[in-house]
Amino acid sequence: MTNVIFPHRHLLGIEGLAPHEISALLDLSDQFVEKNRSTDRKASSLRGQTVINLFFENSTRTRTSFELAAKRLGADVINMQVSASSVAKGETLIDTAMTLNAMHIDVLVVRHPDSGAVKLLSEKVNCAVINAGDGWHEHPTQALLDALTIRRRKGRLGGLTVAICGDVLHSRVARSNMHLLSTMGARVRLVGPRTLMPAKAEKLGVEVFTDMVEGLRDVDIVMMLRVQNERMRGNFIPSIREYFHFFGLDYDKLSVAKPDALIMHPGPMNRGVEIDSDLADDVERSVIREQVEMGVAVRMACLKVATHNLAMGNA
Fold first, then answer.
1. Which of 189, 159, 155, 157 minimizes the C-alpha distance to 174?
2. Which of 87, 85, 83, 79 shows the shortest CA–CA distance to 54?
3. Any idea which of 64-73, 233-242, 264-273 has the lowest mean pLDDT?
4. What is the pLDDT of residues 246-287, one digit of tens each?
5. What does DSSP assign to residue 133?
6. DSSP E strand boundaries for 25-82
7. Which of 86, 148, 189, 244 is deepest in the core (most CB within 10 A)?
């Protein structure tokens, strides 16, 4: 595998990464896609390394993807069930960090419901830390796998128009994608009801549309977001039926996008809420299954870089 120029010890977010650093991670991920499609999927670059998946929120897809990525690289993997651990009994994040330091682990993959919690842990542990999603803040590996999916299909990121649609307000996926796509030269639109749009969203360097048809006109990529009911406090949408009518993706709304526009969704999907079920399964337009495949390759790349930088002593 090619050496990657990525000088950061941790991967806490996309914001602040340079275009060449993002490209380096995507280039390495590309190599792992081909490795995963071969008959010999196992590697040994992380042999002797210990990776802990510390998830304070449920996430079958992301946790399984990180676990598979680490095992394919030859690492020892431990999945910590936080609900059954000392954290649920009142242990603080600082106590957890001290415990993990005593175990001499190499990489900590963390998902946490509070924005900033992963950064706090990274300041207290001796290992490399990868953010698997923190609160409303960021989900960097999701943005990287989305970018890899787009780049492999379209050949580039720069110059494309990408519509990120739905519950932008509560979405860390949207935030990471906004940072990444804008950094790489794509034109980003946010599309959704005003109640699910961040305050002063226009100041983020994106275009904002509250009409789905206008927002999708002539776009290259339609990226749907899950309606995150668990994060909502109050009435953000009148009803599921009305939400789908105005903002759910179907063939009629998609018809104003470019004829070869691709459909994406980070999962899990609420069929009939964010997206029409037939459209989600349309092999000509949907790359949702490809996103899952790219997720393993991207997480292999991030784990490899993290352990390499830790060994080199990068700050």
1. 189
2. 79
3. 233-242
4. 999 999 999 999 999 999 999 989 899 999 999 999 999 999
5. E
6. 50-55, 76-81
7. 148
Assess contact for 106 and 310: CB atoms under 8 A: yes
In terms of C-beta distances under 8 Å and separation of at least 24 residues, what long-range contacts does 56-61 make, across chains too?
56/82, 56/87, 56/110, 56/111, 56/112, 56/113, 56/117, 57/111, 57/112, 57/113, 57/133, 59/111, 59/132, 59/133, 61/267, 61/268, 61/292, 61/295
The alpha helices in 164-233, defined as continuous H runs, are 172-183, 212-216
Residue 117, H or E segment = helix 117-124
- Helix axis angle, 288-312 to 140-154, nearest 10°: 120
Q: Residue 314 gets which letter from DSSP? A: -
- Taking alpha carbons only, the member of 294, 29, 46, 9 closest to residue 130 is 9
* Whether 114 contacts 148, CB under 8 Å: no
SS3 270: coil
Task: Give the model's pLDDT for residue 4.
Answer: 64
**Model confidence pLDDT, tens digit, residues 113-132:** 999 999 999 999 999 999 99
Per the document, the length of the chain is: 315
Q: What is the 3-state secondary structure (H, E, C) of 142-179?
A: HHHHHHHHHHHHHCCCCCCEEEEECCCCCCHHHHHHHH
Q: What is the mean pLDDT of residues 288-306?
A: 97
Residue 234 has pLDDT above 50, yes or no: no
Joined tokens for residue 290:
């490809």
Which run of H or E residues covers position 107?
A: strand 107-112
How many whole angstroms from its chain centre is CA 204?
19
Q: What is the DSSP letter of 76?
A: E
pLDDT value for 233: 47
Q: Are 20 and 183 in contact (CB under 8 A)?
A: no
